[in-house]
Amino acid sequence: MAQAEDIILIGGSAGSYGVIVNMLESIPAKISSAIIVIIHRNAKYPTQMEKSLTLKLKRPILSAEDKVTIEGNNIYFASPGYHLLVEPDHTFSLDISDPVNFSRPSIDVLFESAAEVYTTRCTALLLSGANNDGAYGIKRVEFFGGTSIIQDPNDALINTMPNSAITTSSKANVLKNKEIINYFCSIK
Question: Which domain does 72 fall in, by range?
Answer without folding.
Answer: 1-106
